[in-house]
Amino acid sequence: MNDEPVRLLHGSGQGLQLLLNQVVLPSLHIHEKDGPLEDAALLTGLTGTLAFTTDSFVVNPLRFNGGDIGKLAACGTINDLAMMGAKPHALSVSLIIEEGLLFSDLKSFLNSLRQECETAGAAIVCGDTKVVDAGKGDGLYINTSGIGRVSTPYNLSAAHARPGDCVIVSGPIGQHGIAILAARQQLGFSSTVVSDCAALDKLALTLLEAVPETRVLRDATRGGCAAVLNEIADASNVTITLDQAAIPVQPGVAAACDYLGLDPLQVANEGRFVAVVPEASAGKALGALKRHPLGKDSALIGQVELRERFGLLIQTEIGGKRIVEMPSGLLLPRIC
Amino acid sequence: MNDEPVRLLHGSGQGLQLLLNQVVLPSLHIHEKDGPLEDAALLTGLTGTLAFTTDSFVVNPLRFNGGDIGKLAACGTINDLAMMGAKPHALSVSLIIEEGLLFSDLKSFLNSLRQECETAGAAIVCGDTKVVDAGKGDGLYINTSGIGRVSTPYNLSAAHARPGDCVIVSGPIGQHGIAILAARQQLGFSSTVVSDCAALDKLALTLLEAVPETRVLRDATRGGCAAVLNEIADASNVTITLDQAAIPVQPGVAAACDYLGLDPLQVANEGRFVAVVPEASAGKALGALKRHPLGKDSALIGQVELRERFGLLIQTEIGGKRIVEMPSGLLLPRIC
To answer: How far is CA A123 from CA A151, B48, B220, B313, in A?
Structure first.
C-alpha cells in the first residue's frame, strides 16, 4: 500500500477520500475525532494584530541534504510570520500532486511538515489536495499559508532602516542553495553542505524581546542576502555597505561558489535572516542571537548609510568597494 | 510587452521584480504607495471568531464559458468562508506559473480574481509568485487562502443534519463541470452551457440571516452534489433521500449528461450550495434564497431520514429508489 502511486482518480470523490484518509490526514495527525472536514476552519480567541502570509513551494528536487519540500513548506511560512514579529498560530496546507508520486513519499514529506509545525506550536487547521496529470507537475507542489499572533507591536518594515544602523546576519549564508544544487546532480559537483532550512520563530522572538527597537527583519530566501538587502536599501532609501571579511560563509559553501562562479550573497537561505538594528543596540542583538543555537554564528556584516546611487555595496577584503546587484533571477531557479 | 511570455528568470531577483511590478501587482491593484512588500501582512481590528480556508486551483483549461482560473480561485475561497457563515475579509494569492504563460493572459486572470474579491469586499493582502520550467506545470496554478469574520456564531457543520430536516440546493446543478468539459474540446460535443462559477457570500449570508438555525451549508464543488451530500450523510449519520423530479437541471446540462453518460448530481458546481435546514424553516429558507438573483432557482430537493445502509438515495421519476454513490473520482479530473 505504501508504494502505491497517486493517480488522477485520487483527485476527487472516493479516490480523494481514500488519499485523505490513508495518507494526508494521518500524516498530518488529523484524526476522525477532530470532527468532519468543513469548508473552513473556525479560529477563536485571536485578538490584537494578526500576521497573514502565503508561500508556494516548488523546490526541485523534493529532497535535499538537510530537508525536503515538507520541512521547507513549514519553515518558509513560519519564518515569514516570525519576520513580522508574529508567533505562528495556524497553518493551511494545500497540495498539488503529480500523478505518480508514491504514497510513501507523500507521507514522508507531510511528516516533515507536521513535525516543524508541532515544534513551532502552529496547528494545521485546513487544507486542500489536488492531483494533476503526469507531466503537468513535478512530483509535488505545496502551498502553506499561515496566521500568526503579534503580541507586542514591533515596528518592523523593510522601509525602516536608517543611516547609522547596523546589519546583522543570523548565521553562515548560502547553504540551502548549494545543498539544492548538489542534490540536482547536474552540475558536475558533489558537496556535503547541509541546507540551513530551519524554523526561525524562536530565534526571531529572542532577538525582538532583547531588542524591541529592531528596525527590519527579513529572511534571506530567493536571491539570498543580495536580494533582501537590495530590497531593504530601496524601500528605506539608504545604501547598505557590507564588510566582506565579516560575512560568515562555511568553507564548503565558499568552495562550491568558487567552482560554480556564484556569489554566496546571491545564494538562497531557508534558515537565515538579516536584521537591521540601531547602532547602539547591535551588541545587545548579537549577544541575544549568539545565545540561541540557530544564531550562534550570527555576525555584524554591514552598516546603513545615506543613499548613494546604488543600494548595496561591499567593502572587499583587498580594500576596494563594489556594487552587489539584485540577482538577475537566471542563476538559481526553483530553490524553494 | 503584453505578449511577452513568463520565463524561468522571472522566478527570482530582478526578473521577479519585473514580473511583480509590471504584471502581478498592477493587475491586483496593489500600488507602491501601499508600502513595501513585507514577509507577512498585518491585520488589525479582527475580533471574535475567524474562518480560515485554503484551495489550490488547477482547472484545465484556464478559460471556460462563464469564467477563468482567476475568477474560480477567488470564488472558491470566498465560498468556503461563506459556507461557515463568515464574511470574506482578506485573501492571499499564490501563483505557480509555467514558463511560457503570456503576460497578457496572466493579467487577465488576475483581473478576474481581483474583481471578484472587490465585489466580495475581500482585500488581497499577501501573495507569492513562483515560476516552474516548461513541462512542469500547466500554464498556471493559483492558490488562494482566506480569512473571514464570523459576526454571528451560526452552528454550521456537516455533522448537524438531523432526521426530518430538508435539503435545499441554491440553483440548477452541473453547469460548471459541463462548461469545463465543453471547453476541453476533446469529447466530441459542444455546448453553450455557462459555468455557474460565482461568489456565494451574499447569498449565504442572506440565508443565514433569515434562517440562523440552518444546520449545514456546503458548496457542491468537486464530485458535485453527490459527493457533498454523501459527506453530510456520513458525518451526520443520517440518510438523505432526494426527489429526482425536484432537482433543478438546465436542459443543456441534462442533454450533455445524457450524451456523456454522467449523472448531473456527480458533476461539479462552483456557484451552488446545498443547505440543510429544519423542516419548519424550509419555506422561510427558500423564500429568502429566491429573492436573491443567485438563488432564484433554488429548490427543496430532499429530506433527511434515519440512517439506513447507504447515505444518499434518490426517488426516481419512475417511482423507484436508487443509491447515489460518492463519485469514484475517475470521471472529471481537474474541474477546479
So the answer is: 18, 19, 27, 37
